[in-house]
Amino acid sequence: MRKDREAQKLSGRAGFEAYYSALYGERWPKIREALSGDVRYAAWNAGGKEPYFLDAASVLAAFSLPLSGAHTLLDLCAAPGGKTLVLASLMEEDAMLVANERSRERCRRLKRVLENCLCETVFARVKASLCDGAKMCLDENARFDRILLDAPCSSERHVFTDAKYLAEWTPSRIKTSAIAQWALLSSAYRMLNPEGYILYSTCALAPAENDGIVERLLKKFDTAKIALDAVPRERQRLLPFCDTLFPEAEKTKYGFHVLPDVQRGAGPIYFSLIRKTVL
Known about the structure:
alpha/beta; 20% strand; globular
């Protein structure tokens, strides 16, 4: 309780600094410097009218979701659409992808990205939907072989580079994000077909939004198992779409973390691959 009370006293720039310095120790100044620097972008060319530029670590995360044998795919929080394009480009020829977004405005932007960046044959197999991802599991027909959940998060990079958000920062931002992330991940897991996979991802630095959420899922569902011990390095399938080298990812308890201080601006991106087993 004392620790919680002390955390709540943290606020603004000083609070942000103290909180993440406690998490990352001597490494924090280099991470902080990297957050204010350039993002390491990769160009993804999916055969449409224009390429799409996204964080190179996001390509690595999306590529870590195995798509072989999957016929029904869901990107639960799809906007702005970068990871959606990766899945759409790499999915099998008979697969269908639902790209969902809760915000009407973000969904409109997502549709424009899909229309502009995908070739016609792939675009025909991608459907954009406007739903609350935390409630999608209530639809008995919403069942998928693979799910990508790039969950909304406290997004420290965005906070640190925006004076308004930094001045308003408190640890409650992380707690609020974690509540929403759990609602989305538990919904996603209920929609997952047996022997299917979920790729859970955030751009957060705080473990409470990363391994903490995955750990909660593992405790809640006996059938949930971690399915990725090493990041895939085979890039042959990517070469028609992207020639950017992958950044390196650091192993965490349940997943992997790409941090910008050692990856030339890539990240932060956390991801974990979870399989729904049959007991």
